[in-house]
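DNA-binding transcriptional MerR regulator
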Amino acid sequence: MRIGELAATTGTTTKTLRFYEAAGLLPPPQRTSAGYRTYDPAVTERLDFIQRSQRAGLTLAQIREVLAIRDGGNAPCSHVQHLLGDRLADLDRQLADLTALRATVAALLDQADTVAPDACPPATVCRYL
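Predicted C-alpha cells:
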C-alpha cells in the first residue's frame, strides 16, 4: 500500500509517516521502480501500537525502545509495565502540582473579592497578583 493510502487507513498524515520512518519507529518501506514508498499492510498494527502508546503519554524514544525489544524477538511486557508505572507516577505528581496551583489561584480569587480595584496603586500593576 502506498503512503497516502496508509495515512488514510490509519488516520495519520504522510508527513507523520515519513517522520516515524526517519525516527526509526517504522521500518524503511519497499520502493517501487519510480521511488514510491510501498508499505506492507501489517505496518498498520505497528502504527496502531504507536498511537496507543502516545495516548498513554509515552515519548517517541520510549516507544522506539519498546519496538526495538519486540523487533529483537522478545516480548516487551515487563519493560512496558515499568514505563507505565513511571508514567503513572508522573501523572500523580502533575495532579498534585495542579491541585496546589488550583488552591493558589482560588486563594488569589478570594483576595480579589475583598480588594477595591480603584485602590490599586499603578506601580503594583494589579494587586490581585
